[in-house]
Design brief:
Layout (H helix, E strand, L loop, with lengths): L1 H11 L11 H10 L7 H13 L4 H13 L18 H10 L6 H11 L6 H13 L4 H14 L3 E2 L4 E5 L13 H10 L4 E5 L11 H7 L8 H9 L5 E5 H4 L1 H4 L2 H7 L4 H5 L6 E2 L2 E7 L5 H10 L5 E5 L14 E7 L2 E7 L19 H12 L5 H17 L6 H10 L1 H8 L3
Parallel strand pairs: 1-5, 2-3, 2-6, 3-4, 6-7
Antiparallel strand pairs: 7-8, 8-9
Helix pairs in contact: 1-3, 3-7, 5-7, 6-8, 9-18, 9-20, 17-18, 18-19
Length: 423
């Protein structure tokens, strides 16, 4: 029944434009599910928030009113519909957002502090995050939440002239090969240190990511920040993976909450921008999933002390570039935003269709990446080369032209940087 509850949440809780109404079958199921104490209360809180926050049909309105009259909703969810007198302002903000009203930057900052407060129930945290998402976060809310997360996260400085932060969405890929660790090795092999960061698994995709690939390869996934610093500073390695459990343990502690919520909260958007490793110059490569977030991400990137940022909308909404089409390409600096497009032909790489039709397990993806690092021609070789070449050109790394990158792949130089990691 939990799986069915999640399916209904995915149907109703998608958002204003893609949400589907609850029909008689869904209504009957929810009438049984909400009183059932064996089902996850956080998932219920997320779904009830969505029902309250999103437009409703007359049939949904009638079902909701009947449900209130029969008392099917658990008492833990009363804060969503009953008076908040005597409760912290956090609960008032939740109700305000379910009616479509925004918070100030300071309220958003304080609301995120409540999300991190262990004394606040998870059901309220889920409702806050879901209501914030469904009404669409404002610039002021993004600013307040990002400021809170930036202040609370840990980061370390590395003694190299520059580092490239390959900031992929933490939930990974579930339809295409995830190749970014191999891009980091390739860039490191031509003198461009890199950092990747993430989590072992998180909703909504729970897909292929750096942690899963490293674990499959028998390489460490839980380097301390000091150990990551040493790896990045090493000329024979030049790259590292930083896990959220060590760089931001308080955010990692919200993992179970986020899994039960199913949908992607604002945390998923902003955790990518927290840069756990910084150098004299830090270059950020990140992505936006939906077009409205392009402007938001550009503004937030300009607010932090890096030399430049590269914002793309690649495969699965991530930073990995497609070989069969051009990709939106936005260079961001503290003083300017330059928009354009990039395509494989710009680097003398032939365009090609994605060859994979189904989700790929970690061993298959690992083998693809290692074959590319051994110089084997094919989709993975070209995808890794293209990604590294775009990053190097965007940030002006003269040692990492496409010819040098191709030579490093073909000669096994990049492979040696993979092999040295964790050895």
């Amino acid at each position: 029944m939990q799986a069915r509850l999640i399916a209904i949440l995915k149907q109703k809780g998608t958002g204003h434009t893609m949400s589907k109404a609850l029909g008689p079958l869904e209504q009957d199921d929810l009438t049984r599910f909400f009183p059932d104490s064996s089902l996850n209360i956080v998932t219920k809180a997320t779904l009830l928030t969505a029902i309250l926050a999103l437009p409703k049909t007359s049939e949904e309105e009638a079902w909701l009113q009947a449900s209130f009259n029969t008392g099917i909703f658990p008492s833990e969810l009363n804060f969503l519909t009953q008076a908040t007198d005597g409760k912290p302002a956090f609960y008032t903000w939740i109700q305000r957002m379910t009616r479509g009203n925004a918070l100030t930057a300071q309220e958003a900052y304080d609301g995120m502090a409540a999300v991190f407060n262990p004394h606040i129930p998870d059901v309220a945290k889920a409702a806050f995050l879901e209501a914030l998402r469904l009404k669409r976060e404002t610039d002021a809310e993004h600013d307040g939440i990002y400021r809170f997360l930036w202040e609370k996260a840990s980061r370390i400085s590395v003694d190299v002239p520059a580092v490239v932060d390959l900031s992929a969405a933490y939930d990974g890929f579930n339809r295409t090969p995830f190749l970014l660790p191999f891009v980091a090795c390739l860039l490191a092999s031509v003198g461009v240190p890199c950092v990747l960061h993430g989590i072992d698994e998180i909703s909504p995709k729970r897909g292929m990511n750096t942690a899963k690939l490293l674990q499959t390869a028998g390489k460490p996934t839980l380097l301390t920040l000091d150990a990551a610093k040493a790896a990045i500073e090493s000329r024979s390695i030049g790259w590292a993976y930083v896990d959220q459990s060590l760089s931001f343990p308080d955010l990692f502690a919200l993992k179970a909450l986020r899994q039960a919520m199913v949908k992607r909260p604002v945390l998923s958007t902003l955790e990518k921008l927290l840069m756990p490793v910084q150098a004299k110059q830090t270059y950020l490569v990140t992505s936006y999933t939906h077009p409205p977030y392009r402007r938001v991400m550009s503004q937030l990137m300009q607010a932090r002390p890096w030399a430049q940022g590269l914002l793309v909308r690649g495969i699965e909404g991530g930073i990995q570039l497609a070989l069969d089409r051009q990709t939106p390409h936005i260079l961001v600096s503290p003083s300017d935003v330059i928009e354009g497009y990039v395509k494989p032909e710009d680097f003398a790489i032939p365009p090609q269709e994605l060859e994979f039709e189904a989700a790929l397990d970690a061993q298959v993806v690992l083998d693809l990446g290692l074959d590319a690092l051994r110089g084997q021609a094919g989709y993975a070789f070209d995808a890794i080369l293209y990604q590294a070449a775009v990053v190097a050109k965007a940030f002006g790394f003269e040692s990492a032209g496409v010819d040098q990158l191709r030579q490093s792949l073909s000669s096994g130089q990049a492979l040696r940087h993979w092999e040295a990691y964790g050895s």
